[in-house]
Amino acid sequence: MKTVWHVLVGLLAGLLLSAAVFLVARAPRGEGVTLRPPPTAEPFQVHIAGAVVRPGVYDLPEGARVLDAVEAAGGFVAEADKNAVNLAARIEDAQKLDIPFVAGFEPEAEQGFVVVSEGTPSSLLEGDPVDINNASQAELEGLPGIGPSLAERIIAYREENGPFAQIEDIVNVSGIGSATYEEIKDLIIAGE
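Structure (tokenized):
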């Protein structure tokens, strides 16, 4: 009887082992699962005009605010009426933001300011280049990509470290990277 038990247990173990090998070795059925990134919202376009460095049409992400549009346009010009704008307001696709000038300022007047379109330098840059060692905050803000905070940092940097020896040294200012430098390098000098 023991021999029969051993034969039955051996057959049962052999069948279980064969079934396990069959399940593991067979080719998988169906298609594999491919994980895709979640859909991202398309950026929308906003037209910003008036008292900004580079008026034009900009792509902004959903949920952007007026402050984001102003920063995309290079920041406020010195003559902007910043208190007349709600910087925290949300903006919508195809919205036009008109940033007002201070009362009494005429942008086309003989003060040298010209409203420009996207990609063109302001009138400050059409004549002489901006001397980064002597420029005022307003002159620095006239450079593409330089807003009020970057202009302040440039002035603070040159006050702490002395004048810039060459224009390439402007990348030492926090917030000015190679992309900004490439945008302004033909528009600046490092005078005495």
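The longest strand covers residues 44-50. The radius of gyration is 32 Å.
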